[in-house]
Amino acid sequence: MPQIEEAQPKYLQIAHYIRDQILRGDLRPGDEVPSERQLAANWKVSRPTAARSLQALSHQGLVEKRQGSGTYVRSLEVNRRARELYGRARQTGKIYTPGEYAVITSAGWSEAPAYVAEALGLSKDRRAVCRRWVTNNQDGPMTLSTSWFAPDVGQRAPRLTDLERIQEGTLMYVESVTGRRGSYAEDRMCARQATGNEAADLQLEPGAAVLIVHHVVYDLQDRPLEFAEATYPPNRWAFEQGYPLT
Known about the structure:
Elements: H1 10-24, H2 36-43, H3 47-59, E1 63-66, E2 70-73, H4 82-92, E3 101-111, H5 114-120, E4 127-137, E5 140-149, H6 151-156, H7 170-178, E6 182-193, H8 196-201, E7 209-219, E8 224-232
Antiparallel strand pairs: 1-2, 3-4, 4-5, 5-8, 6-7, 7-8
């Protein structure tokens, strides 16, 4: 018989909370994470439990302990998932961390490809709003993103067709003007060679390998709200996920 899984151990809950802060960019490379004593007091757990949470983060390669000093976030090249971007936007009102910025390369109405039309539930009329941008930091391009929205959303969210940045992120903007709130999302991933346009946008060699993520956001009524395609360059860590083996 299938069984409901028990709640995660406390040390993993603490570790995942800090991991999310790191992946969102709230804790940046070189920042000190809370000490065992602070974690034990804040989370009302024992010191050994707090120590185990820091050890789990160290095993994941996210932090390093410096003798006689503390525990610090390591310098990492990580592909941040949409969930981390949304979490940061909802917490701070801004989707990017300091030093990151987006360049909007195109925005407007276009005919959606068949796979986008299927994901958004478009039938005969496949016209939709398409918004494409490249996210950069001081080292260059990090991600190429393309978001698609159905006509009813595009008509109520006119900023989607502007070439101006939306600081809070497209999803939070769409939620604010339509009253529809994102409830859950589904991701599908694959690796392939970059197209010519993708290679140019991400400053890659022609034919370089890229990670593709198709991301669909659903509202509280299980209706598709956004289809997004993210293209990530190679040599950055992909998404990390821990799971029980029993």
